[in-house]
Amino acid sequence: MIHESKENSKSLSKRLKRREFFKSIAFLGLVTFSTTKLHAKGSKSQFKYQDTPKNGQACKDCIHFEAETNTCKVVKGSIDANGWCTLYTNPKK
User: Fold this and answer.
1) Handedness of CA 31, 33, 37, 39 (dihedral sign)
2) Between the CA of residue 2 and those of 9, 12, 15, 21, 62, what are the distances in Å?
3) Cβ-contact 90, 57 below 8 angstroms
4) Which residue from 31, 36, 80 is spatially nearest to 58, judged by alpha carbons?
5) In the CATH hierarchy, which top-level class contains the domain 42-93?
6) The dihedral sign for the CA sequence 61, 62, 65, 66
7) Which of 4-13, 57-66, 76-85 has the lowest mean pLDDT?
8) How many CA atoms lie within 13 A of 44 on its CB side?
9) What is the pLDDT of residue 22?
10) pLDDT by residue (tens digit) across 18-74?
11) DSSP output for 16-84
12) What is the C-alpha R_g of the chain?
């Protein structure tokens, strides 16, 4: 009788460890998915990109613009330094 309860205890312990393992794997999957999603670039149309400035705001002054490659950290494709989109963010604010 005592022998059976020890086996049940070991079995329960293994199941709990296994359950925690699978919870950890699931959590890591969610973290990876959400991180990947955060780094995905959107389309020009999604952010209403235009090749001209708007109200004195231009990509060349935005924190997302990468002048060396004429690209943006958040919008796909080639970006004009004088362009503008709804994600414009002034670095001085």
Assistant:
1) positive
2) 11, 15, 20, 29, 71
3) yes
4) 80
5) few secondary structures
6) positive
7) 4-13
8) 11
9) 62
10) 767 666 666 566 555 544 455 689 999 999 999 999 999 999 999 999 999 999 999
11) HHHHHHHHHHHHHHHHHHHHHHHHPPBPTTTTT-BSS-BTTB-GGGSTTEETTTTEESSB-S---TT-B
12) 26
Amino acid identity, residue 92?
A: K
Read off the tokens for 55: 């109200």
Break the chain into its structural domains and give their ranges: 1-40, 42-93
Widest distance between CA atoms in the chain:
83
